Amino acid sequence: MNSNTQRIVITAVLTALLIAVGPLAVNIGPIPMTLQTLIIALVASVSSTRVSLTAIGLYLLLGAFGLPVFAGFKGGFVLLAGPTAGYLWSFLLFAPIIGLSFKRWANVWGLIVTNILASVVNLTIGTIWLTISMQLPVEAGIAAGITPFILSSTLKITVVVIVALAVRQVQARTALAF
Amino acid sequence: MNNIMIGRFVPGNSWVHRLDPRTKMIVTFVYIIVMLWANNWQTYAWTAAFVVALVKLTDQPFKLYWDGLKPIFWLILFTVILQLLFTPGTPILFSVGPFQVTVPGILNAIYVMVRFVLIILMSTILTLTTPPTSIANALESLLSPFKKIGVPVAELALMLAIALRFVPLLMDEMQKIMNAQKSRGMSFSTGGPIKRAKAIIPLLIPLFIGALQRALDLANAMEVRGFKDAVQRTKYRILSYQKIDKVAFTALIGFVIIFFVIKTWLHG
């Protein structure tokens, strides 16, 4: 078995998962919880840095050319340059950060810590860019970019860790890990 | 759900449909970059005229474009309100609590809205008239210079083509899993935030494991049929520029030149 073919196909299928699930949202109260961040963290949690970085990069590339793959079925180059672009670009960092827990710290704690770290980096970069590009005062930036997401981020990380552990168990049994 | 991805491409035989996908992508990209330099109503009017002309050329009902704008409506509104409230300047029209609505604020808000709408219209033209596989092919061709610095462009394009093919399959799969869970008494739309977030766990686990299993099957099937690597693949459809593409590029150059003429003339 040539592992090169497997790597290509698994990257493609993970990209497809990002495209299929990324635009969806779950109604959990006044603000719907988008699944975009969740699915990106999940893809990064069940594959190596190389595979997840490629998948996330392809996802952003498709979005840049206008395919409706981002949260809420949005797409377009404007989103990668607009006020919320920081959140999108920092998804690329999910691959190296969460990837640390794929081979080296491959246990529950590694998974939890890297996911929290990725989430913090995502919100920080997103908010800094939001604040700069909209020329907001710092407090307004934090109120718009961080506070509304604390509850949903915690929920997302919990879901990601539970699902990733289950998927990794199957990967370990069937040698599907890439 | 399916309709949203696939419904975006509408087959047709208009001028824009017949353009090479690479031409459309280059025009879209150059247009969006040029438009970021627009800074007064004359330049905005000129960029708007270009898009309206293109929309006319696609021969599609305007409703399709409106559908492309609708999902992004809230983001536009949010941006417009932020611009209204946080743009400093004079004269101040009135105050809302600690915020002041100013004349430059209103102008900024209108410009931001127009810019959003035009850029979305432009990318809708691209996706409405170009099938996803052509987009993947065009990307491969456009990114081929990056081969020289070691970017595996052929491999990335193959991944994109497989990914786009897998999306409808995964959406069907998701629907099946949801129905299976519902028939076992699962509810996806009741309960508090934690219960609803928990409800997606038994949806995602089988979705991921099923997808990885399919990937492995596909990898086996490809190898059995002699797949070695993406570089040595041959193509069913070979892209080539036609006369109509030259017309499009000429129009694009004209657009850019007139844009900057308007811009500098108004400043000089």
TrEMBL record, chain B:
Compartments it resides in: Cell membrane
Keywords assigned: Cell membrane, Membrane, Transmembrane, Transmembrane helix, Transport
Transmembrane segments annotated in the record for this chain: 26-52, 72-94, 106-129, 149-171, 247-266
Tagged with keyword Transmembrane: yes
Its membrane topology: Multi-pass membrane protein
Any one annotated GO CC term: plasma membrane
Highest taxon, organism lineage: Bacteria
InterPro entries: ABC/ECF_trnsptr_transmembrane, EcfT
Summary of the function given for this chain in its UniProt record: Transmembrane (T) component of an energy-coupling factor (ECF) ABC-transporter complex. Unlike classic ABC transporters this ECF transporter provides the energy necessary to transport a number of different substrates.
Record HAMAP family: EcfT
Family, per entry: Belongs to the energy-coupling factor EcfT family.
Protein name: Energy-coupling factor transporter transmembrane protein EcfT
Organism: Leuconostoc gelidum subsp. gelidum
